[in-house]
Amino acid sequence: MSIHDELQNFWETYAAAYRVGDATACAAMFALDGELYSPYAPPACGRAAIEALHRIWTEGAGTDKRLTVLKAGSSGDLAWCLAAYSEGQATGDGTSLDVFERRADGKWLIRMCSLNSNDPHTED
Question: What is the mean pLDDT of residues 5-27?
Fold first, then answer.
């Protein structure tokens, strides 16, 4: 299976957990010392902080979270991808640039994630 397909499967699993409000499952897809940078919240560093942030984001669930890998590559036990995300009207659309590390069992974990919104921001 290509790295593009592996990471698309990864994101489909993540999106399914997100849609049902499973913040623990979402956070478990990050390395223990993973990092998440987002225009929607302060940085979250470490799995516990990432889970806490996902609890807020997935509260009430019912979102239509979707992720589509646009580009991907890998070298050894590291991989990267650029994915488009969409969550519907509540949050909107954007891209996610991610670095992954492969665990000893062959599964991928997110080492670093940077969300970048495509939505226009208005200043009051």
Answer: 96
